[in-house]
Design brief:
The protein contains 21 helices and no strands. By secondary structure, it is mainly alpha-helical. 51% of the residues are buried.
C-alpha cells in the first residue's frame, strides 16, 4: 500500500472523533450531547443489519463449510482414494489449525491498516483457490499442504469480522450480531450435509470422485463470493454506500457517545501490553479452548459419529442437517435474550452444562440409536452458544480498538488450539462409540463452564471497585490519563 493511500485511510478511520456533521459542521461536544431519537436509531440499526449481517454470515458460512467438508470427503472414501496412512485423516484435520493459530492473532491487528474492503475479499478468494486445489490432490502430502494453506487463508477471517462489527455497533448490540456468525456456522453444518449428500452422487462424472466434486464446486462458490464481497463491504460507516447523509450523521453521534469503546488512534505497543497483562484474556481463552474442542469435533466429525451408528454415507450426511439446524435456532434465540437483558454468565453456564449432559449420554448409551441421535441434539444445544457468547463477552469488555483486536486475536489463538485437539480425539480406531472423543469433549466443556463462573466473578469485582471510588480518586485517574475499560466510567457486562 502506498504511503499516500495509507495516510488517507488512516484519516478515514478516525471516525470515533469525527467533528463532521450533515449538513453542517458539529463539534465533538455537540455530537456527544446530541439526543438520538430511539425510533430513528432502531430504523438505522435495521438498515445496518440488512446490509452487514447477510454479507458477514455468508462469509463465515463458507469458511466453516470449507474447513469442515473434509469430514464429508472422508466419509465418501477420500482416505482410501489417496491411500492415507493410519490416522492420516486425523492429522489432516488437525494440521489446518496449526497455521490457523499461528497467523490468526497477527493478521487480526492488520485489519485497519490493510482495509476491510480489500483484506477480507483477498483472503476469501485465496482460500477458495486452495479448496479448488484440494479437489485435485493425488496423495497424502498434497492434502497436508492444502490443509496448511487453507488454515493460513482462513485465519484472519473470524477476528476481522468481529472487529468489523465494532466499527458499526455499540457494545450492548454486539451479542446478537456476533450470534449471526455462529448461526451461520451451524447453518453451514446443516447445508454442508445436504450439499455433500448431493455432490457425492456426482461420483464418476469427468472421471472424478464425488469428494473431488465436493471440493471443486464449493471452492468455486467461495471464489465467486470473495469477488462479490469486494463491492459490498465498506471500510467504515463514512464509506457505507447504503447510508444517506442523515444516517451517517447519526452514526457519528453514536461513535462519539461510545468513544471509550471504539477507541482513538492509540500507541500500538502500549495497547498490546495492556491486553497481554489483563488476566481476563487468559481466563476467556481457557474457556474458549474447552468450548472449541467441542465445536470443532462436532462440526467436523458429526457425520463420522453418525456413521458409527451404522448408517451409510448419504444418510449420515443428511442426518446432520437437523442437529445443526437445532443448534442454530437455539443460539439465535438465546443471543437475542442475552442482548436484551445484557446477561452472559446466566446463559453460558446452564447451556454449557446441557452440552456436558449430552456427551455423558453418548458415553453411557451404546445400544439405542434413537437415544444417541437425541444426545447429538443435546450436545449441539450449548456448543455454539458457549463459543459465540464467550467471544462476545470479551469483545464487549475490552475498550480501545488495538487492545480489543489483540485480546480477540489471542483469545481465538488459544481457543483454536482446540481444533488441533479435536482432530486427534475422534480416531477411526475409536469407532463406533468414540469414547475418547466424547470424554475429552465433556472435559473441555466442563472446564469452560467453570471458567465462565470465574470470568463473571472478575468482571463483577472490577465494577464494584469502580463503584467504590471517591470523587478524588476519579479525578486522579482522569489526571493520569487512564483510558479504555480501566476508566471509572466503563462498566463491565457479566
Amino acid at each position: 500500500m502506498s504511503g499516500d493511500v495509507e495516510k488517507a485511510y488512516e484519516a478515514d478511520q478516525k471516525v470515533a472523533s469525527s467533528v463532521r456533521s450533515s449538513p453542517q459542521e458539529s463539534t465533538q461536544d455537540d455530537l456527544a450531547s446530541e439526543h438520538l431519537d430511539p425510533a430513528e436509531e432502531v430504523k438505522l440499526l435495521r438498515k445496518l443489519d440488512i446490509n452487514i449481517a447477510p454479507v458477514l454470515m455468508v462469509l463465515y458460512l463458507i469458511s466453516f463449510l470449507d474447513r469442515s467438508n473434509i469430514g464429508n470427503a472422508l466419509s465418501a472414501g477420500m482416505a482410501e482414494d489417496l491411500n492415507l496412512p493410519t490416522e492420516g485423516s486425523n492429522v489432516a484435520v488437525s494440521i489446518f489449525y496449526v497455521t490457523y493459530v499461528v497467523f490468526e492473532s497477527p493478521l487480526a491487528t492488520l485489519l485497519k491498516k490493510l482495509r476491510p474492503s480489500r483484506m477480507i475479499p483477498f483472503i476469501v478468494v485465496a482460500w477458495g483457490c486452495v479448496v479448488i486445489g484440494s479437489g485435485f490432490v493425488k496423495n497424502y502430502a498434497g492434502l497436508i499442504v492444502c490443509r496448511l494453506f487453507l488454515g493460513a487463508g482462513e485465519a484472519a477471517l473470524f477476528p476481522c469480522l468481529t472487529l468489523y462489527l465494532t466499527l458499526f455497533y455499540k457494545r450492548t448490540e454486539l451479542a446478537r450480531r456476533t450470534c449471526y456468525l455462529f448461526v451461520a456456522a451451524a447453518i453451514s453444518g446443516a447445508f454442508g450435509g445436504l450439499i455433500a449428500a448431493g455432490l457425492l452422487k456426482m461420483e464418476g462424472i469427468a472421471n472424478l470422485h464425488g469428494w473431488q466434486w465436493l471440493y471443486i464446486i464449493e471452492g468455486l462458490l467461495t471464489v465467486v463470493i470473495g469477488f462479490g464481497v469486494f463491492w459490498l463491504l465498506p471500510d467504515n460507516f463514512e464509506h457505507a454506500w447504503y447510508l444517506n447523509d442523515r444516517e451517517k450523521h447519526l452514526m457519528r453521534i453514536r461513535a462519539e457517545q461510545t468513544k471509550a469503546y471504539l477507541g482513538v488512534e492509540e500507541h500500538y505497543w502500549r495497547e498490546v501490553k495492556k491486553a497481554l497483562r489483563d488476566p481476563s484474556l487468559y481466563i476467556s481463552g481457557f474457556c474458549q479452548l474447552g468450548a472449541d474442542i467441542c465445536l470443532y469435533g462436532y462440526s467436523t466429525f458429526l457425520v463420522t459419529i453418525l456413521r458409527g451408528f451404522g448408517y451409510d454415507t448419504i444418510r449420515a450426511n443428511l442426518m446432520t442437517a437437523p442437529a445443526y439446524a437445532w443448534a442454530a435456532i437455539v443460539y439465535f434465540c438465546l443471543a437475542v435474550i442475552s442482548d436484551r437483558y445484557q446477561k452472559r454468565v446466566a446463559i453460558l453456564m446452564p447451556l454449557g452444562t446441557i452440552t456436558v449432559v449430552g456427551y455423558a449420554i453418548l458415553l453411557g448409551v451404546h445400544d439405542s440409536n434413537a437415544v444417541k441421535y437425541f444426545a447429538c441434539f443435546v450436545v449441539g444445544t450449548g456448543i455454539y452458544v458457549t463459543v459465540g457468547l464467550n467471544l462476545t463477552w470479551l469483545n464487549q469488555n475490552q475498550a480501545g480498538f488495538l487492545k480489543r483486536s489483540t485480546s480477540l486475536g489471542c483469545q481465538q489463538t488459544l481457543g483454536n488450539i482446540g481444533g488441533v485437539i479435536a482432530g486427534q480425539i475422534y480416531r477411526s480406531t475409536g469407532a463406533p462409540n468414540y469414547t475418547v472423543g466424547h470424554a475429552v469433549s465433556l472435559a473441555g466443556m466442563s472446564w469452560a463452564v467453570i471458567g465462565f463462573g470465574v470470568q463473571a466473578y472478575l468482571w463483577k469485582r472490577r465494577n464494584a471497585r469502580k463503584d467504590a471510588m471517591t470523587e478524588e480518586e476519579k479525578a486522579e485517574q482522569d489526571a493520569q490519563g487512564v483510558t479504555g475499560d480501566a476508566h471509572h466510567t466503563f462498566r463491565y457486562v457479566w
